[in-house]
Amino acid sequence: MPHADASLVPSTIITKSRFWEHVYSQLESLLEGQRHWVTNLANASSLIYNCLVAFPAYFGSGDHAVNWCGFYILPSLFPLPRFTTLPSSQASVSQVKGSLLLGPFCGKPACQLINLQADKARGVCADAFIHGKTVLVQDVNTYPGHIACDGSTHSEIVCPLIYQSQGSDEPLVVGVLDLDCLALSGFDEDDQAGLEKIAELIVQSCDW
């Protein structure tokens, strides 16, 4: 099967729970044999985004469309640059402490950095990362400290990417999976359950 066909959604799928099972299965196949997180997150964001477009019963490309799907990741996990045109004193500009950096995504240009510092952290992504729990927002305009990367977004869901290393009792949040929707109350508990399983699959399928 061509890789692009993974984003097709059969017309027989009419419920959200069945939809997310389908996306999970397709993503599992796409990630097989690949462990690099940049590659896997790129395919994951594309698959989720395009599957949602192909599911007009709840999302599609109209007023209920998901207009952004992507990841924010700890700066320390990004590959170190091997070549740069910057002076050596500026070469580590991407290693911003107390933040998340924009990773692979589908949608319009987004905020490059999410601040996590105690006195500056704000927004849905920061809260999901700091607390290690999914944040489901039915109306972003009522969410304290919401960062408006796209003014057309009205609802949002963010799932933490939680890595559990062998021999350690302390989980590590390596980033977040973020989805925006044009509609109010665009996401519900079925979406949360499906996306949390997908986030777990992504973490387990990558070397960080």
Structure commentary:
With 208 residues, the protein is of the alpha+beta class. It has helices spanning 16-31, 37-53, 124-131, 189-204; strands at 66-73, 99-107, 113-115, 135-137, 155-163, 172-181. The protein has a 6-stranded antiparallel β-sheet, sandwiched between helices. A hairpin with a 5-residue loop joins β2 and β3 (113-115). It is globular, with a radius of gyration of 17 Å. It starts with 15 loop residues before the first helix and ends with a helix. The mean pLDDT is 93.
Task: Provide a brief overview of the structure.
With 208 residues, this protein is an alpha+beta fold.
Structural class: alpha+beta
SSE topology string: HHEEEHEEEH
Task: Give unreliable regions as ranges.
Answer: none
Number of helices: 4
List the helices and strands and how they pair.
Elements: H1 16-31, H2 37-53, E1 66-73, E2 99-107, E3 113-115, H3 124-131, E4 135-137, E5 155-163, E6 172-181, H4 189-204
Antiparallel strand pairs: 1-2, 1-6, 2-3, 4-5, 5-6
